[in-house]
Amino acid sequence: MVTGRSEEASGRIRLGMVGGGNDAFIGGVHRIAARLDDKFELVAGALSSTPEKSIESGQALGLERVYEDFKQMAIREARLKSGIEAVSIVTPNHVHYAAAREFLKRGIHVICDKPLTSTLADAKKLVKAAESANALFILTHNYTGYPMVRQAREMVANGDIGKIRVVQVEYPQDWLTEQQDFKQAEWRTDPERSGAGGSTGDIGTHAYNLACFVTGLKAESLAADLQAFVPGRKVDDNAHVLLRFEGGARGMLWSSQVAPGNENALRLRVYGEKGGLEWSQEDPNYLWFTPYNEPKRLITRNGAGAGDPANRLSRVPPGHPEGYLEGFANIYGEAAEAIQAFRNGTSPDASVVYPTVRDGLNGVKFVAACVQSSSKNAAWVKLE
Amino acid sequence: MVTGRSEEASGRIRLGMVGGGNDAFIGGVHRIAARLDDKFELVAGALSSTPEKSIESGQALGLERVYEDFKQMAIREARLKSGIEAVSIVTPNHVHYAAAREFLKRGIHVICDKPLTSTLADAKKLVKAAESANALFILTHNYTGYPMVRQAREMVANGDIGKIRVVQVEYPQDWLTEQQDFKQAEWRTDPERSGAGGSTGDIGTHAYNLACFVTGLKAESLAADLQAFVPGRKVDDNAHVLLRFEGGARGMLWSSQVAPGNENALRLRVYGEKGGLEWSQEDPNYLWFTPYNEPKRLITRNGAGAGDPANRLSRVPPGHPEGYLEGFANIYGEAAEAIQAFRNGTSPDASVVYPTVRDGLNGVKFVAACVQSSSKNAAWVKLE
Amino acid sequence: MVTGRSEEASGRIRLGMVGGGNDAFIGGVHRIAARLDDKFELVAGALSSTPEKSIESGQALGLERVYEDFKQMAIREARLKSGIEAVSIVTPNHVHYAAAREFLKRGIHVICDKPLTSTLADAKKLVKAAESANALFILTHNYTGYPMVRQAREMVANGDIGKIRVVQVEYPQDWLTEQQDFKQAEWRTDPERSGAGGSTGDIGTHAYNLACFVTGLKAESLAADLQAFVPGRKVDDNAHVLLRFEGGARGMLWSSQVAPGNENALRLRVYGEKGGLEWSQEDPNYLWFTPYNEPKRLITRNGAGAGDPANRLSRVPPGHPEGYLEGFANIYGEAAEAIQAFRNGTSPDASVVYPTVRDGLNGVKFVAACVQSSSKNAAWVKLE
Amino acid sequence: MVTGRSEEASGRIRLGMVGGGNDAFIGGVHRIAARLDDKFELVAGALSSTPEKSIESGQALGLERVYEDFKQMAIREARLKSGIEAVSIVTPNHVHYAAAREFLKRGIHVICDKPLTSTLADAKKLVKAAESANALFILTHNYTGYPMVRQAREMVANGDIGKIRVVQVEYPQDWLTEQQDFKQAEWRTDPERSGAGGSTGDIGTHAYNLACFVTGLKAESLAADLQAFVPGRKVDDNAHVLLRFEGGARGMLWSSQVAPGNENALRLRVYGEKGGLEWSQEDPNYLWFTPYNEPKRLITRNGAGAGDPANRLSRVPPGHPEGYLEGFANIYGEAAEAIQAFRNGTSPDASVVYPTVRDGLNGVKFVAACVQSSSKNAAWVKLE
């Protein structure tokens, strides 16, 4: 018998969490994602802006150290010998910047939910904070963690579909078809906390990020027609956006929270001079690839046709579906590789890819441009 | 034994055809569609603009009377006692008006392929000609003949999805991904014969017509970003269009001929305050209906959940798929009912519905507006 | 102008029909199938076993010659100079043999609905009658007319999936889940008219024929467990059958009329040493092909990957779905080619393929073996 | 700030593992499943039958206590104050019994992979050992952990589809289409370690268990036709099985490892007098429900139509796919609830359901019956 593992020896990264208290949604997702591959250990938290709730939620989770607020947490953890090395920020959007800043400036890595911030001003400040910090910043545009999204990106980069012409991305949901007052709906439809974008901020940024991630292209300008269909709603719940990418590709982006029959139907289609690729988040283990004039092919996660960039993020054989949590966990896995390399003063392997603070800034710019364009009757607005 | 059917007794409508010679595509489709339900008998034709080819093609089809050109045919048939009662016009677009006029003014019903004409000026003249004629005019926007499209239209009219908010319609194909020189490609990419619109004219008009047909709404304005991706192509092969409908609904229309992996992927999705409907041309026997907050339901042609407007256009039981030709034949079936009522000096049953010359005008206006908007950097253009 | 087509010049085959009166189902399907490609002209009929109904139905269809019964029709038509060249027999099963015999012995080609007969004795007599006649016999196992079924057959023959190991074929329906008394249900559940098999005869024979057609294999023996689930039903409404094919392949066949949610869900899957093929009747324009260890490929009718045997039976481009009626019409098309060759004293092109009287005999043997096996507690029964 | 969580306070169950060393597959799955919901902490292991490999593998996982063999582990852990409370047994099948016995008799709960054992004799002994132990026994027939499988079970129990008539279950794979020599293939095709069943043992038991779990029915007898298609293979790689259930329902089961194009295509269809249910493991978030004569409905995990038994095992909203690992983790979640109740001397809530040692025995009986039946030319064999 051999005994005696210390927690250090396990190599797990000590993680804290800001936000994610009892009635939150995405906090729980981050905790599962961090835990799935055993690379993180959640040890500390400031889980709510209400101190009592923060304490109560942290104790319920069995955390070792529970704080009343994130600033206190940042200060104390930074002083501890075995304080947290990274923090997950899973608050409503308007808190992201203030929270991230406290940890970044103390050298604690930040894993932050999207969109980056609720305002463009905050986003720019956060970029500065992140880029001048001695710490990493990872944004959880989790859909980029799906293996078949990586496969698509790789195939585009390899030229398998040739020069890109058309990008169709959509992200319809139906959960806000009627007025909703529960917590998740409430803050997401409040511009003070969510930002000026509604569907554009909450899901449009995902769609936009996914399109850019897979194609490797940046949009140069957009024209947006936003609507708030539900009476009294202060932010858009449906967005129709035309996109013009560098190099001449054109695109359409549709985000909606009022499309009955759509649960979380993020879908990307990319067409080039030589072929097409199609991927759907609700069926994420598959990627359709059509070389022009050849039969459509179904590439499966970990199956025939899938390459290294997809397979390194897969855990189980093809036909054993991985889903949303595994895709989310892949972002944590990339973060872990980057943090471990940072520990060692090295760079992670080139295969390690995660959304950055710049990607987050691009998302906030996307929202701002949508809102601006829509206010000008869908006039074209430059991005950057 | 009982003998002696005269052709008259059969009640078949005597039909002529303009265009549709040996190497045409849509002419053959019209002939099958006219024949499928045994309501028409094709007896005469001027099948090509080249007299020899017209004669040769007509004889190959075993027609009773073959003409060198459509004008000759119109004049002579009008004088015959048992001349044609109706004519199908299946030429390239730029010939539609001139041909239709000759028959309409002689009281011969016209069944005309879409788009109505190659120019807006011609379209307006054709509306006048049709509306002042003692004859019917039917436009073969054939997708409105699919039973489940009728079902969708009925459900919208019944209020099953409530007031409409969002209309997503798309019609991607891939057959023009590269330069093509065969006949079907050649005239469709020649603005002299096809009109100023490429994908917008050939398939965008179908998509637009379908959206209006099902929703019962008219678009008030549009903003379009058109591209000709294939070098040297003179008309658009991809179109991204924002739509604003009367009453506040918003929509997106995408037509493309350069999207590899899409054969003929016309698809309509309509979302209202109470539910959603989704239909796809490549899987036409099904209609998805989601009442908000209830499970999605699959309504099948002639099956559970389908109503009279769909069932009256169905021939075989559910699970025995009907397709493109049957949908097309349904337009001929509607035409036959209207013509038979016309014979009797009555009106057809209220259930009889077919695309009219006004629908055709709307399609040509749609193309013109797309071209105009795109030339102005996707500025909004009013329709009407 | 050129005038003067005689009916002869058109080349259409003069066709009669036995059965298919007013309230029949399959008769109407045969008429559309015969008409679709304009190769037949229905001119005579004995449409019902009730003389008045026969006359009434024939006149309603506008037939030139209407008979009170099929024998009268066979005798008189055989004497006419322009009598029918072929007859479609679309009666309930128990009439097939008697009717077919009358026409075959007078040199009139027979196109007969399936199953061949209601008894094995009749089937054997019909084989004799057909094989000694100076006329052709075509059995409408219509599913063999689907282009992608031809494609599958071709690929098996080409060795694309290697030596066959496993054949899974199923044909579930739900229309007899409860007791039904309308005409179609009534005779199909009456062993006097339908034969000893219920689901096995009506749809199991289709499934069995399809499996043999595509694989090119014959079953050597079967073990069947039949049920009549609906109280009072005299024939099976569900059949579970194990199959052993020559050469060692094994298979399963499931037919059911009591499987709610299945409309007409005939489906064939064939697996060999090198790959697999999957086809579904409700989605007939597609064939899935998986070469072992490669991505699954979607071969589409008239599209990339489809070969001549499929394309020669296609009318419209890929993405324009063809369905049940077109597949059925393809059997009529094959019949027409064979009959035209017969007229000329030649053989049809080798590509012409249709189900024969021997295939029909195999189907009746299949039913008999199922019934026999089931009566012996699913013991193995040899076929042949 | 509040500090001081002890591991005990966390409530995590201390877990050991037998098997699951470096090159294993299912061990890693169990570890993720145990970790996902943070209810277990893996602290000890004997991960290989080779002592050095066991030590090396355990250290690589950072386990606190690593043993050379499972007996040593059982003895020592049972004596420790904070020894393991439960052990996961993830070895090849032939080791299950011997390992389980050591832990059960010392009051350590066992979570064991399927099939229960490699022989029927072992299975019976294990039932005795489990039922006489002061410890729980949970078998990881993980597919019963999928929320929509629970939904199906609930609906059957509620009578939503009426009395069951037909059960179609299949589990095709393709990974053994050719001879394979890597570890996972090697022991699974060795009857000494796997048991007499090949595909029947490895996946047929899953299919059989799933059918029984959802329907609540037991099979009374079966007739099986097994094949080993790959030359030299000692166990079946394809199985065709007829099933007769108590109460008169009939079924078919197909398991195959040689069906190219099938990755892990477990699929269950159940038809009753009033409706049908269909579920597919590769698309596990959906359940199709067809009430007879009504449109098919799509019930989604955590979405409209899903009830408590499904929702209590769901983590994320509908449209955010959960997969294989989440379903597997649900078995661990059920185990955790049962173990926590055991700790407290109570029973878990009635909603807690997991496969038992008796289910395992039924699986081994199923394999034995298949082998016996097949050796007797597919004669019927009683299942107890």
Automatic annotation (TrEMBL), chains A, B, C, D:
List the Gene Ontology MF annotations in alphabetical order.
Answer: nucleotide binding
Residues in Gfo/Idh/MocA-like oxidoreductase N-terminal domain copies: 13-139
The source's domain of life comes to Bacteria
Instruction: Name the InterPro entries on file.
Output: Gfo/Idh/MocA-like_OxRdtase_N, Gfo/Idh/MocA_oxidoreduct, GFO_IDH_MocA-like_dom, NAD(P)-bd_dom_sf
Domain named GFO/IDH/MocA-like oxidoreductase: residues: 149-278
Q: Which SUPFAM superfamilies match?
A: Glyceraldehyde-3-phosphate dehydrogenase-like, C-terminal domain (SSF55347), NAD(P)-binding Rossmann-fold domains (SSF51735)
One Pfam family, please name it.
Answer: GFO_IDH_MocA
Task: List membrane-spanning regions.
Answer: none
Protein name listed in UniProt: Putative dehydrogenase
Lineage here is: Bacteria, Pseudomonadati, Pseudomonadota, Alphaproteobacteria, Rhodobacterales
